[in-house]
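ok new one. same drill as before - structure tokens go in, u give me an amino acid for every spot. 461 of them this time. try not to just spam alanines like last time pls lmao
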């Protein structure tokens, strides 16, 4: 989700080691960080060796914004759906949270993986157990002055050697503290959670957590998404608010109709298996807990993967971008689904939209890449030889007349920001197999050369 979420970005991953060092000379050009996720077919898994990690990439910015393959530097990653960046310990360095979702282990999927905090300015790493985590957001949920971390967990191993899994693990809130060790957590029941967001929806001064739920464990994806209403002192209301959704994939929060109240956008992916053409939902806010199906709008989407918010036409109503990666057409064309921009309106008329010509669109980011003063849309397109695409905004019309593409490989998420790459080459040591350990912090001795990125300036819209 892009909207009220903290920035996300990947500097360096060395199997649990990160080093963010000093500042390099600023060049003001936007870099692109592309996460790579391999296909699910066994042939692809064997061909590309999911067990030992897959390279994701940083594309170095230049005055031409062309992002050729020659400009990219690879870094190793697991099948990680997303990352987020924040200065968790208030030391002036940005820290990376890398969400590890699934890996192949002994010819079976394994979801019980650690996600990591790579601490900026050092080689420290904190391992946080997660269960098929697919999203993360950071916020001071309990208003104690320390940043908390929320993971949306989708799947857990029940008997991994036999390929037995559960689709309804609890999701986690890791509580911040003066020690910044994230040793304690709250567990919140969810149903195959795939997106999460934090906001004070009802204006009571306490943060609420919204989870987009994907699957209820039965024969369809008609699962309610949840709002956990903040109750203070690290607690939540006993029963979550229910938001009907259809294979909820992502969630974003913002003021779509310009009435100052927060609206909730649920990106629906699919209903039954192979039925991908489902509308997504806008639940209109009124400053209370009155988010109901009776007060929502529906907009056309198909196989939606991510949702983001920005005011492209400068009318004080946030607009909605949905990246859509598949539809119900035949096997030869089903990944040719267009993505959408729906324009917010103070009368809640969501009939005005623009289609974006995309193929197998997954993650997206919204960022003023070329410094024109207008925010562009960059979308990760998934496939072995599938380039990703930038839709350039040249004015406040909400139209994107120019596009450009750049070479990517099974791109699943993308982030734009300003970084300087100033040391090349990487090394990687695979994460050890076995049970998930308790959260811990360790100093990792780097066994190989490093990629060190200096984080100069970055924001996630």
């Amino acid at each position: 989700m892009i909207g009220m979420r903290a920035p996300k970005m990947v500097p360096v991953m060395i199997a649990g080691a990160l080093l963010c060092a000093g500042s390099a000379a600023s060049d003001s050009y936007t870099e692109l960080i592309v996460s790579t996720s391999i296909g699910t077919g066994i042939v692809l898994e064997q061909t590309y060796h999911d067990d030992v990690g897959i390279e994701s990439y940083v594309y170095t910015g230049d005055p031409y914004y062309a992002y050729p393959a020659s400009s990219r530097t690879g870094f190793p990653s697991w099948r990680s759906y997303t990352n987020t960046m924040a200065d968790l310990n208030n030391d002036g360095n940005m820290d990376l949270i890398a969400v590890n979702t699934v890996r192949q282990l002994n010819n079976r999927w394994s979801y019980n993986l650690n996600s990591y905090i790579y601490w900026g300015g050092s080689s420290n790493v904190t391992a946080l157990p997660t269960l098929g985590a697919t999203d993360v957001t950071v916020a001071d949920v309990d208003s104690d002055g320390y940043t908390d971390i929320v993971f949306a967990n989708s799947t857990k191993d029940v008997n991994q050697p036999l390929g037995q899994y559960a689709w309804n693990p609890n999701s986690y809130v890791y509580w911040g503290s003066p020690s910044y060790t994230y040793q304690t957590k709250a567990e919140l029941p969810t149903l195959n959670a795939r997106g999460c967001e934090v906001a004070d929806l009802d204006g009571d001064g306490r943060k609420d957590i919204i989870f987009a739920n994907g699957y209820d464990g039965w024969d369809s994806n008609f699962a309610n998404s949840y709002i956990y209403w903040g109750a203070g002192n690290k607690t939540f209301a006993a029963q979550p608010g229910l938001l009907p959704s259809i294979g909820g994939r992502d969630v974003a929060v913002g003021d779509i109709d310009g009435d100052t109240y927060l609206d909730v956008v649920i990106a629906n992916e699919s209903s039954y298996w192979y039925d991908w053409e489902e509308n997504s939902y806008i639940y209109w806010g009124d400053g209370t807990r009155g988010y109901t199906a009776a007060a929502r709008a529906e907009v056309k989407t198909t196989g939606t993967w991510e949702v983001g918010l920005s005011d492209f036409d400068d009318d004080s109503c946030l607009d909605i971008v949905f990246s859509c990666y598949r539809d119900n057409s035949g096997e030869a064309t089903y990944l040719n689904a267009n993505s959408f921009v729906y324009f917010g309106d103070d009368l809640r008329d969501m009939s005005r939209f623009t289609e974006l010509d995309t193929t197998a669109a997954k993650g997206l980011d919204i960022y003023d890449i070329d410094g024109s003063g207008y925010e562009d849309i960059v979308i990760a397109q998934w496939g072995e030889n599938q380039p990703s695409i930038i839709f350039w905004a040249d004015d406040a019309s909400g139209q994107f007349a120019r596009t450009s593409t750049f070479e990517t490989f099974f791109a699943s998420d993308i982030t734009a920001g300003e970084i300087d790459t100033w040391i090349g080459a990487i090394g990687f040591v695979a994460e050890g197999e076995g049970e998930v350990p308790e959260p811990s912090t360790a100093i990792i001795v780097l066994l190989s050369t490093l990629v060190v990125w200096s984080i100069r300036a970055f924001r996630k819209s």
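DSSP finds one helix and 36 strands in the chain. and btw Residues 3-26, 39-51, 420-461 have pLDDT under 50 and may be disordered.
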